[in-house]
Design brief:
This protein is of the alpha/beta class. It has 20 helices and 16 strands. It is globular and about 65 Å long.
């Protein structure tokens, strides 16, 4: 799930730390426009005083600052057990400093100059990660929330508990929107690597060229545009866990290099002949039938067997409809918190309708529906008739009255089209006001602008940079 409603585009409290006034103010303005509540500090010492008096979801800090630098600042944050996720910003990135930042607990780092969207996306991802790992308890090692007590969910939790303490590679399979990434995070949180780096890579969003650099890193000058060295995700994850999200989308030629890493835990950065050895646990997700992909020649058979040492199947929502009421309560509470209002109440008939729907988009579709109800619902408690118009297709009247009968709802829209309609309806609800629309949907303004750009709007890109 990448920058979808209610997922990675969430907002929170952010502390920006930079001794350069123009850079500090520019980053703060970018993040405020994205819907975050931002406080600024001109030094690490000032920032430590800030975290002593208030809590933050994310800290964006420059690496090179007079007095206490970014790495020393992170050491102090660790000693204070500050649970905010840290994003390191630097124009002086090197392999050594970036690795050290990650090992000191940084969520990620970003090199200047960078696109405005990069900063917004990274901060939103950092905040989402903080809330995932802290929802069920205090501290970064806590497991993310997995809602539901149905037999399929009990079996899934038992499987996670069984495989988490082991070092084996796990292939997590399931349809889009079922929560495969949550399962991966739960495995990491229950493992003996829980206090070590957690690194993930969304494979479908990268080209073949960029994928190799993201996985293994590159040397300066390795290719056009490689103006500085870059460490790859495997190196960042050393000692911890890496998640290859939708691994089936990796190019066949690159699959051979990935196979070697799984076999030998060794690789070379692009443009380098130096072999790097890492201790990394590999988790992978896929929404495809990899055996069918192997048969069709689109996925290496040897790589499939290396990944599927322990396969875990995440059930679709239609196979655990008993969990719908608990999920509804969970998403209603989250939406209410985001909107700053009391949770919407559903009539029993509305809940029965939700519980007898096939959910082709799975939990993600349910989350979108609850977000839509919370933002646009005209009455509370919400009736089945009010709710029915928000579904992809209406359930049959007799199914709405039969809680134990499986639904057979025809699918009329894709999840992407449903998301588009929700965005457009919410935008209309707020008279075209993007900040209010983004806040109601739980996404950043620039994430919203990116979606609208796909629908025909094209706001001008901006680049942020600072010398030194």
């Amino acid at each position: 799930m990448n920058d979808r409603i209610g997922s990675k585009g969430i907002t929170g409290r952010v502390l920006v730390v930079d001794d350069h006034p123009q850079a500090r103010d520019s980053m703060a303005e970018i993040l405020r426009q994205a819907g975050h509540a931002v406080e600024c500090c001109s030094s690490a010492a000032e920032a430590l005083a800030a975290v002593d008096r208030a809590s933050f979801d994310c800290i964006v800090t420059d690496l090179r600052m007079p007095g206490m630098n970014g790495l020393e600042f992170m050491i102090q944050l660790q000693r204070r057990q500050v649970d905010a996720q840290v994003v390191m910003v630097t124009a002086h990135a090197s392999v050594a400093t970036a690795v050290e930042a990650m090992r000191r607990g940084a969520f990620d780092y970003i090199e200047k100059p960078f696109q405005v969207d990069q900063l917004e996306r990274l901060v939103s991802q950092a905040i989402r990660h903080k809330r995932l790992v802290s929802h069920s308890g205090d501290g970064a090692g806590a497991a993310p929330a997995m809602v539901g007590a149905s037999p399929p969910m009990q079996a899934l939790r038992a499987k996670i508990a069984q495989v988490a303490p082991t070092p084996v590679t796990v292939l997590i399979m399931g349809e889009s929107g079922t929560g495969k990434e949550l399962v991966a995070r739960a495995i990491h949180a229950a493992s003996n690597r829980r206090d070590k780096p957690w690194v993930s890579l969304n494979c479908p969003v990268l080209s073949v060229h960029l994928m190799e650099s993201e996985l293994f890193g590159h040397q300066r000058g390795a290719f056009t545009g490689a103006d500085a060295p870059r460490i790859g995700r495997f190196e960042l994850a050393d000692g911890g866990t890496i998640l290859l999200d939708e691994v089936s989308e990796i190019d066949l030629n690159l699959q051979a290099k990935l196979l070697r890493v799984l076999q030998e835990r060794a690789f070379e950065r692009v443009g380098s002949s130096e072999t790097i050895h890492v201790d990394v646990r590999v988790l992978a997700t896929t929404n495809r039938d990899l055996e069918a992909e192997v048969a069709a020649g689109r996925f290496r058979q040897d790589l499939y067997y290396r990944l599927a040492v322990v396969p875990i199947h995440v059930p679709p929502l239609r196979e655990r409809l008993d969990d719908v009421p608990a999920l509804v309560d969970y998403f209603l509470a989250r939406s209410a918190e985001r909107l700053g209002r009391e949770p919407v109440v559903l009539q029993r008939s509305a809940l029965d309708l939700l519980q007898n729907y096939t959910w082709p988009g799975n939990v993600r579709e349910l989350e979108n529906i609850i977000t839509r109800i919370s933002v646009l619902g005209s009455a509370s408690p919400v009736s089945a008739d009010e709710l029915r118009r928000w579904l992809v297709a209406s359930a049959r009247a007799d199914q709405a009255a039969a809680p134990n009968k499986a639904a057979t709802v025809p699918v009329g829209l894709s999840l992407e089209e449903m998301e588009r309609r929700l965005i457009e309806a919410t935008l209309q609800q707020f008279g075209g006001h993007r900040e209010k629309t983004a806040k109601a949907l739980g996404i950043g303004v620039r994430t919203l602008s990116g979606k609208l750009r796909q629908y025909g709007y094209a706001p001008r890109e901006k680049t942020f940079s600072k010398a030194g």
